[in-house]
Amino acid sequence: MLLSMMSESARAALLQRSAPISFGPGEAIFTEGSPGETMIFVQDGRVEISRMTMGGRRSVLNHVGPGEVLGEVALLDGQGRSADAIALSEVTGRVVHRRDVLAFVAAAPESTLMLIAELCSKVRNASDMFSIQSETHAPTRLAQCLLRLGEKWGVAGENGAVRIPGKFSQSDLGAFSGLARENVNRHLRGWASDRVVTLEPDALMLHRPDVLARLAEGTD
């Protein structure tokens, strides 16, 4: 997102200060509280952003993919990382150090507005996730999360179905929706029998997004 907003010359200038970086599935890119000395432009793969709640439960805040940025908040304010970032697949990107980002901003002040826009996007996402995880009706909350995943990662199929590539466990979906795994299991079993959603080995299939949309609105 950030790179796409830049002019070609500004993008080239920033990437010239970067270096290639890669992570394997399950590898920690950074952990909550660790120093925020770099930010990463994701070129390929998917990254889970999460943190532990006061009760010791993992709460997923976002999934980040190609064209998005990791770590810009801590890099800009000089504080520790606010969450964990874990590679869900093979991830490749470009890493830029804080000193180089600050030098780039000093040389191209117009880039400040782009960084602000990127930060605003993160704030909006956090607000959306808080709203979803505050929803008390479990089916509504889970349906909203599935639709959110579908909007960002889904591939359109036949008859309106949406395929979300990747391995998703019930625990993963529970962490994303703020529900216990047992609760997720109960709703997924019911939806699978009605051919609304199925959890497959390499994908999450939303067969009836229209039904999920009604559930997400609390009208079904």
Amino-to-carboxy terminus distance? 35 Å
> What is the string of SSEs from the N terminus onward?
HHEEEEEEHEEHHHEEHHEEH
Please state the average pLDDT score. 86
Q: Given the helix and strand composition, which structural class is it?
A: alpha+beta
CATH superfamily of the largest domain: Jelly Rolls
- Could you give the order of strands across the largest sheet? 1-8-3-6
- The share of residues in helices is 40-55%
Poorly predicted ranges (pLDDT <50, ≥5 residues)? Answer: none
The main pleated sheet reads as:
4 strands, antiparallel
Number of individual domains: 2
Question: What's the architecture of the largest domain, going by CATH?
Answer: Sandwich
- How many individual β-strands? 12
Query: Rough shape?
Result: elongated
How many distinct helices?
A: 9
What's the CATH topology label of the largest domain?
A: Jelly Rolls
Computed over alpha carbons, the radius of gyration is 19 Å
Any overview of this molecule?
45% of the residues lie in helices and 25% in strands. It is α+β, with helices and mostly antiparallel strands. The protein has 2 domains: 2-133, Jelly Rolls (Sandwich), CATH 2.60.120; 135-216, Orthogonal Bundle (Arc Repressor Mutant, subunit A). A 4-stranded antiparallel sheet has the order 1-8-3-6. A hairpin with a 2-residue loop joins strand 11 and strand 12. Helix 6 packs across helix 9 (209-216). The mean pLDDT is 86.
